[in-house]
Amino acid sequence: MSSKTKILIMKKRELIYTAIFAALAVVFLILLFLMFRTGRDSVSQTFANAVYVPGIYTTPVILNNNVMDLQVRVDADHINSISFVNLSESAAAMFPLMEPALENLAAQICEKQSTKDVYYEANSQYTSQMLLRAIETTLESARR
Fold first, then answer.
1. How far is CA 52 from CA 21, 110, 121, in A?
2. Within the chain, what is the greatest distance between any pair of CA atoms?
3. Cα(102)–Cα(90) distance, rounded to whole angstroms?
4. Distance (Å, rounded) from C-alpha 138 to C-alpha 75?
5. Assigned CATH class of 55-142
6. Contact, 98 vs 84, CB < 8 A?
7. Contacts for 79-83 with beta carbons within 8 Å, 24 or more apart?
8. Residues 79-127: tens digit of each pLDDT
9. pTM (two decimals)
10. How far apart are the first and last CA of the chain?
């Protein structure tokens, strides 16, 4: 039977350094925990009453194989803007009521902050209804 006894010799200086670094690591971890915990609470309180998740949301609108993106910009409580993105000149020429109808709807929706009780003209009734459905779809994706 052979047993090898190992003796570990440590100097006092190494023990003191190890204890100091361990204490600093614990203090650092506690500070990190406190910093990020309070940050989350303030952010969650800020967005707790928010209607929308802030950002830019798009919904494709397809008419006769022409794809146009309807873009809605929102912040936590407001609809900031509604516009077309990627509207080609040929699509604008083929559907001349699209841009004026969207401008009319966007002005009313941004003013009222709602898609309820929106007025549209009789000559662009169907275009406005289609755009209003696309706007509502986009706003649904932006809601919490």
1. 46, 14, 29
2. 104
3. 17
4. 14
5. alpha beta
6. yes
7. 79/52, 79/109, 79/110, 79/113, 79/139, 80/110, 81/106, 81/110, 82/106, 82/109, 82/110, 82/135
8. 999 999 988 888 889 988 899 999 999 999 999 999 998 998 888 899 9
9. 0.66
10. 72
Please state, in angstroms and rounded to a whole number, the distance separating the CA atoms of residues 117 and 94: 29
β-bridge partners, 85: 69
Q: What is the DSSP letter of 143?
A: B
How many angstroms separate the CA atoms of 144 and 140, rounded? Answer: 8
* Other beta carbons within 10 Å of 128: 22
Q: Is 58 exposed, middle or buried (0-12, 13-18, 19+ CB in 10 A)?
A: middle
Angle, helices 125-142 vs 98-112, to 10°: value is: 50
Average model confidence (pLDDT) for the chain? 87
Choose among 29, 19, 80: nearest CA to 55: 80
Nearest to 74 by CA among 117, 138, 13: 138
**CA–CA separation, 68 and 65 (whole Å):** 10
pLDDT of residue 43: 55
Domain boundaries, the chain: 10-46, 55-142
